Amino acid sequence: MSAPSDAVREVEALGRDLSRLIGTGTLPPEAEDSLRSLIALARRLASDNAEMAATIAAQEARIAELVAQVAALAAQVAQLQRDLYGSRSERRKEEEDGKDGKDRRQGGKPGRTKDRGDAVSDTGLRFGADAPVIDITVTPPEIEGLSDDDYEVISERVHCRVAALDWRYVVIRYRYLKVKIRETGALVSAPARESVFKNSAADVSFVAGMLIDKFQWHLPLHRQHQMLAAGGITVNRGSLSQWANRAVALLKPVHDAQWRSVLESAVIQMDETPIRAGRQPGNPGSMKKGYFWPVLGDRGEVVFPFATSREHEHAAEFLGEYSGTLVSDGYGAYEAYVAARGGAVTHQGCWIHTRRNFFEQKDNHPEMAEEALKLIGAIYRIEKEIAGKSRAKRLAARRTRSRKAVDRFWDWCERTLEDPALTPKHPVRKAIAYATERRATLEVFLGDPDVPPDTNLVENKLRGAKLGQRNWMFAWTELGAEHAGIMNAMLATCRMQGVDPRVWLTDVLLRIDTHPASRVDELTPRRWKELFAHDPMTSDVAAVTAGRLHAAAKGAK
Questions:
Q1: What is the DSSP letter of 401?
Q2: Is 327 helix (H, G, I), strand (E, B) or coil?
Q3: Any residues with CB less than 8 A from the CB of 56 and at least 6 apart, and which?
Q4: Contact 416, 409 (CB under 8 A)
Q5: 194, 200 in Cβ contact below 8 A?
Q6: N or C: which end of the chain has fewer CB within 10 A?
Q7: Which positions ≥6 away from 75 have C-beta within 8 Å?
Q8: What is the pTM for the complete model shown?
Q9: Percent of the chain beyond pLDDT 90?
Q10: Helical residues (DSSP H) of 266-331, grouped into ranges
Q11: Residue 371 in contact with residue 422, Cβ under 8 Å?
Q12: Which residues fall within 8 angstroms of residue 67, CB to CB, at 6 or more apart?
């Protein structure tokens, strides 16, 4: 296609050639007038075409400029979203494409994202043996009025639906009888039922459910208060706070026993995350900033101690005289603690934090970032392969295959640092510096099969606390933050131990008043599972609920 300027020149040349025919007598006067008009029109169209082409070129240049600006702004927005709302998935596309489908449930169809291979019915609904089920038998209308001898059942089709009962809260009305024995004349009274708080209107089932709703399902107390009112039950909102605080206070000795158990671990993981807790003096509406310092042990237990700041002294305060291996990120508080403990504590750095520094540069410096991510990914592929194998096999793999993968990463770091394009403030240089400065700590896991290469597990336990902050936003007092830490620790440990938190809470709140204080460690989820899970203490409402479900099922048939 000719350029606009070429088209203009061609039109002008054609116009000159045609103009020579005018006045020669070759054409009739009417044809000459038409030819003059046609030549003028062609010249105007050529000129307009040239102007339009110039406008389009300018607009295309502007569009390209705006596209570049949008891409830059999108990168900034993505970074701000990660900073504001927590980290997004850092899985690379190559890692997604490399999946071989081994983790897929049996029964799924190729290319189908929704797999119903283990569903219990054609609806895709899944439920376990602990889910309450109401069986309703549906019969053809034709057999109505017939006796069982008049028809024969040849098959049945099962269809399942998830349903909700019309009640969320109930009131237990105890009627304590006082009777007189006619033969002896003695007066006897029924003993008081077990309760968490003496003479309280809160049943243990309500207290346990309230704590689970607040700290596991992130339903603030004011919303639970509204749900009670909607169910026709009037309770002072302050009473909910008092019951929650009293219940957590009862659990604190159990939490402290769990903390001691965590510090007996050979390997612990530690991190810190901010929480707004306590009002700022002299600044109404402003909250102080505190921190949870979660510590995960190797027995499947975690604690969430709270501190008013992120100062180095808190790491030493929480860990005390711990001896073993500490896995953490590169924050100076952990390095200072390890140094102060001499050789009693070995420090393992976090490869995920090292990787994250490169991941954040994959848009701005894709070639170098992708190479670093690929090299670190090789380390994690080995970790995935050896997971679940014996200690000896894991250690052998780390000393050989993982050692080579780590060395390849360090070699790349050294070569990349020689690139003159990496200025002192270049972000990739900073990412490499973060890694190389911690080289010794990042290699500890190569010599110990029980040491993880990162703090992923303890960061996963933080998710519950961080998700909850989207609902309750802050802790009104620092004591409230401490209580939140206790409950997050106990519920997270229940999940790790495979313990139903509602059953555990109900049993422990009923049992703790009479359980020997010297054996309080038996009430931690890990020990409780072994000692009491087979026959837990329950609330009276459990039997009532079971009976109502049975009656509902019986009436539906």
A1: I
A2: strand
A3: none
A4: no
A5: no
A6: N
A7: 363, 364
A8: 0.74
A9: 43
A10: 313-319
A11: no
A12: none
